[in-house]
Amino acid sequence: MAPRIAPPAAVAFVGLGTMGAPMAGHLATKGYAVRGWDISEAARAASPVPVATSAGAALSGAEAIITMLPHGNAVREALLEGDALADAAPGALVIDMSSSDPLGTRALGEALASRGLAVIDAPVSGGVRKAREASLAIMAGGEPGEIDRAMPLLEAMGASVFRCGALGAGHAMKALNNYVSAAGLVAAVEALAIGRRFGLDPETMVDVLNASTGRNNSTENKLKQQVIPRSFAAGFAIGLMAKDVAAAARLADGLGVEAPLAQAMAERWAEAAHRLGPGADHTAIARLVDP
């Protein structure tokens, strides 16, 4: 069994956005030799860890390669296009923490296995606040021994690590989690709009929901904080939520599971991303029912 990847191992961190930057910073704080990379000049300038001159330079000699990118296609481009992996350490472990398509993750695993690299998927939930607190929930998929190797890294960034199954299982779980979250938010904002039109006080509605069976993550953390004041700044883009819900719907379809609500939610979030713009905050979906 390969040893766990512990400090001061060299780690490449690709994707230094609002989530990736604090996650990379936690690894550096724990003693890892982290080199970051991002295609965004602004992200590179604001990085809490040393930034390489290119993706290939970041990956050179790294024992672990972590990707935190918008989607699986970006992961494939970062790792497989050009010669980014030319100087990766033999037997390096790739940890895709992005929200990628589960079947695409398995295809990536096959492509990287031919290069002698192992892969696990380890997407996260908790948003920017928990990324900053190193208290993310992490959903891991892959060979048990490879997840064991990655555990010190994952534990440096999250409070809970769930072993979900074979490669791709973490991304499947993340897509399903976000589908449930997205459906809960749509129900909550629709209920708020209906109640407001009837004459109910929105603040009272939220209090009742949170003391009753309608309570969910959105009623607790998004209605009073983002929707009622119309600040719409929770930190997760509507386009990313649409992508994850679509992945959940495709997974259901591919497995022959009848999931009409998942299909309806995929259509609703795609519509929201089209009408509001993919970069809008996901809580702004409330504008579709209450302009």
From TrEMBL:
Pfam families: NAD_binding_11 (PF14833), NAD_binding_2 (PF03446)
GO molecular function: NAD binding; NADP binding; oxidoreductase activity, acting on the CH-OH group of donors, NAD or NADP as acceptor
Keyword field: NAD, Oxidoreductase
Any single biological process term in GO: organic acid catabolic process
Metal-binding as UniProt keyword: no
InterPro entries per UniProt: 3-OH-isobutyrate_DH-rel_CS, 6PGDH_NADP-bd, HIBADH-like_NADP-bd, HIBADH-related
Domain 3-hydroxyisobutyrate dehydrogenase-like NAD-binding: 168-288
Residues annotated as domain 6-phosphogluconate dehydrogenase NADP-binding: 11-165
The keyword Oxidoreductase is assigned to this record: yes
Protein name per Swiss-Prot or TrEMBL: NAD(P)-dependent oxidoreductase
Organism per entry: Elioraea tepida
